[in-house]
Amino acid sequence: MLASILFTLILIAAVGLFTKKIKSVIRNINLGRDLNLNNRKSERILTMIRVALGQSKMGSKPVAAFFHVILYVGFVIINIEVIEIIIDGVFGTHRVLSFLGNFYNLLIGSFEYLAFLVFIACFVFLSRRNILKLKRFHMKEMTKWPKSDANIILIIEVLLMSAFLIMNACDYQLQILHVGHYFNGEIVGSFPISSHLISLLPANIESLEFIERFCWWFHIIGILAFLNYVPYSKHFHIMLAFPNTYYSKLTPKGQFANMESVTNEVKLMLDPTATPPTADAPPARFGAKDVQDLTWKQLMDSYSCTECGRCTSACPANLTGKLLSPRKIMMDTRDRLEEVGKNIDKHGADYADDKALLGNYISEEELWACTSCNACTEACPVNIDPLSIILDMRRYLVMEQSTAPAELQGMFAKIENNGAPWQFPASDRMNWTKEEN
Amino acid sequence: MEKLVVPTMAEMMAKGERPDVLFWVGCAGSFDDRAKKVTKAVAKILQHSGVSFAVLGTEESCTGDPAKRAGNEFLFQMQAMSNIMVLNGYEVTKIVTACPHCFNTIKNEYPELGGNYEVLHHSQLLQQLIDSGKLKVEGGSFKGKKITFHDPCYLGRANGEYEAPRSVIQKLDIYFTEMKRSRANGLCCGAGGGQMFKEPENGNKDINIERAEEALALNPEIIAVGCPFCMTMISDGVKNFNKENDVQVKDIAEMIADAIEIK
């Protein structure tokens, strides 16, 4: 009874805390500019099914893809067991779903196999990061928190799976020994993995019961803690991959959005008789200086990034030693957005610090190194678009600050003066027809 | 050799004619000495295949692509809208260009601003001409040559066209070999996004050197390209390894034009 009350309180607290954090994340994402993506719904659903559920873009790195699928399937399916654990916890029952009979045994058995596979996958991933030291996990932006974050998640997974299997082993042994609460006339569940652990367990019933209870509490509190850890972590992608791929860019990768605010002005310049748009809204800033200048989708992208670095390892600028790393663009955007969010929580919505995404986080040198080749967007397993952020910040630099590199300023001037990025008059455009063939 | 006849839209209009296709030459194709050879090759092929085409000539102006990717949306839209006025004035419906940057911009970014055309990269038109029998090519001097193809970002990833250029050059009975980073994983030549017009940022290598190195590792006789910027970047990369006498960098149109002339 006491245990049930305690469990219920912990459950309510954990879910409450999680809800609060999610609300603040949604608030932060909504700090971004409007962008209407409520079109092409069936195409969006198919993209989400293919890319998020089907993990279609993971396959370019087969080893990672294989073990990631194990973690993913393991995570989703083992969480079905959490439903039972929660019911048992609230009502003090034991394996309440066991009335499902053989189907229940099948479920528990498959959970065990999956838990074991997850266990192995975590070790593979830990060794890729810490022993093999794969290059993309050891770049400039992958120190301190991002580095520990990845390891913490994997270690939590290992601990949770261990607790789950040890709990099952004790439970099975207690059922075999026909211990009161655990045994209801027949043995329920199937324990293909944990049955091998029984020989390692103590013989006396009190110790078995203690270990079983300890693992049960450890496992469920661990899961609730993990739930609250996720929104602070790179692991947030397990939730956001779905909406983020739903709102994927569906136009060709080469198509960069035309800025409507510019269209209005250019129309007025080309046709003075055109009527200016009747808007009382304050003049929009051209391009992006800070997170509020980005669209909500770009901000959602930043929360969806799991810092895998596939973008950066495909980026031609990064490959050749330039400062630019598309992953860092996403991590910076998220860090700055979290900072802006915290400022709002502390000082109110109108508070402005003297920092900005451009300058304090992302440097001009990074932005000017991009070739707009779309290797990053192609590589991202959850369809994040770092290129659009780079472009929006270039727009701010050029249209608000006039601070493009001198050669680019020269290129602009030539296009303005003679309609080509090089210094040739339009009258020379047909010269090729007259030259020697 | 056939004489190169290239009418302008203005000349055709004066005669009351309208061509089927506008050949958008582009700035590189008009002014860059190396790219001009590709322009001539495309014109020759169009003429040889009996395609009714014209160019804008002095009325053509930059599509605005480099300005847009470098952040100057104003300049881009100014260029776009004045080009659209010219194109719509001539009632253009179909455009072919040998520049993937022009191709991408006109195809994807002009419609919203009032310019709606069927836009083809020259590799796509060549494929259509071959498929419809209007253009017949045989390997000739290219037969058996080891050739690789460098995907232009703005044709490949940007617009999903990987097959057309490959299928066109494979008509030449070549020994086609693929770089490890190809198609969707193709490595940029380093010129996109305005980089063509500036020095690269500090790093430990230039992107075109990295790419040329990868292509040269296959020991090809020809590195085929489909973009004037890639042409410059890859050629410079090949020169960097002092391989310019052993390995040619050629546009797919040049290869086809060469093959036609041999017949």
Q: How would the blueprint of this fold be written?
A:
The complex is a heterodimer of chains A (437) and B (263).
Chain A: H1 2-29, H2 41-53, H3 62-91, H4 102-130, H5 144-176, H6 205-229, H7 237-246, H8 260-270, H9 296-304, H10 310-314, H11 316-319, H12 326-347, H13 357-361, H14 364-368, H15 375-379, H16 386-401, H17 406-418, H18 431-434
Chain B: H1 9-14, E1 21-24, H2 26-31, H3 33-48, E2 53-54, H4 65-69, H5 73-89, E3 94-97, H6 100-109, E4 118-121, H7 122-131, E5 146-149, H8 163-170, E6 175-176, H9 207-216, E7 222-225, H10 228-240, E8 248-251, H11 252-262
Parallel strand pairs in B: 1-2, 1-3, 3-4, 5-6, 5-7, 7-8
Helix pairs in contact in B: 3-11, 7-8, 9-10
What structural keywords apply?
heterodimer, A: 437 residues, mainly alpha, Fumarate Reductase Iron-sulfur Protein, Chain B, domain 2, 61% helix, elongated, B: 263 residues, alpha/beta, Rossmann fold, 2 domains, four-stranded parallel β-sheet, 11 helices
Explain what the structure shows.
The complex is a heterodimer of chains A (437) and B (263). Chain A has helices at residues 2-29, 41-53, 62-91, 102-130, 144-176, 205-229, 237-246, 260-270, 296-304, 310-314, 316-319, 326-347, 357-361, 364-368, 375-379, 386-401, 406-418, 431-434. The termini of chain A are far apart. The longest helix of chain A is centred in the middle third of the chain and has 33 residues, at 144-176. Chain A is mainly alpha-helical and 437 residues long. Chain A folds into two domains: 2-30 and 61-235; 286-418, Fumarate Reductase Iron-sulfur Protein, Chain B, domain 2, CATH 1.10.1060. Chain A is elongated. In chain A, 61% of the residues lie in helices and 0% in strands. With 263 residues, chain B is an alpha/beta fold. Chain B folds into two domains: 9-128, Rossmann fold (3-Layer(aba) Sandwich); 137-262, Rossmann fold. Chain B is built from eleven helices and eight strands. Chain B has a four-stranded parallel β-sheet with strand order 2-1-3-4, with helices on both faces. The model of chain B has no long low-confidence stretch (mean pLDDT 96). Chains A and B meet through helix 8, helix 11, helix 16, helix 17 and helix 18 of A and helix 2, helix 3, helix 4, helix 5 and helix 6 of B.
